């Protein structure tokens, strides 16, 4: 790795295939390790996986009686909103309710520039599960508000079941992606067909108006 200091600084990294990548900064992401090894969980009868994550079921119950684990230490996606829902599941369990983590939709959001957001399945997930999907993609250059704001980098992509009109997943890289993902999430929770969103009247000019245009591009159902 080469580094040039002073004005006009840059970082240059040589990859294993002899490709050189140059930029203004370098980010080292070493990952996270659960701090569970020194808690004596084995003495309490709490099973822990190879990566140090506490094993829980859909009720967030551990292998020990009357013992639960929530948040990232229990393998929950590393988002505040996901951990908060774990709290709601646990509160329900402690009060005799039936709330679980089964089939919950957790939105993904990364606040880079432009924003990255997604919900549900992506194409790789669908292939791994053997689910046939219809895919539509729309560049942000086609969204009127994005053009007005000069924020045209990125795209919207949707996955729709090949044999029904159910939305299975949505990914967006673009301005206000997190807000648009929330709109799709509500449609997925309500199990609305994609056509209901496609034909809805979305205020102009909003970034979410791009959903009208994106869903017009969904191919027809498989025979």
Radius of gyration: 22 Å
Mean pLDDT: 93
Strand content: 15-25%
Q: Helicity range of the residues?
A: 25-40%
Strand order of the largest sheet: 4-5-8-7-6
* Overall geometric form: globular
Structural class: alpha+beta
Number of helices: 7
Order of helices and strands: EEEHHEEHEHEEHHH
Q: Quote the distance from N terminus to C terminus.
A: 54 Å
Q: Give the beta-strand count.
A: 8
Report the biggest beta sheet as strand number plus sense, adding barrel if it closes. 5 strands, antiparallel
Low-confidence stretches: none
Summarize the structure.
The chain is built from seven helices and eight strands, in the order E-E-E-H-H-E-E-H-E-H-E-E-H-H-H.
Notes on the protein architecture:
The chain is α+β, with helices and mostly antiparallel strands and 223 residues long. Helix content is 25%, strand content 18%. The chain contains 7 helices and 8 strands. A 5-stranded antiparallel beta sheet has the order 4-5-8-7-6. The chain has a 3-stranded antiparallel beta sheet with strand order 1-2-3, with no helix packed on it. The chain is globular. The protein starts with a strand and ends in an 8-residue tail after the last helix. The mean pLDDT is 93.
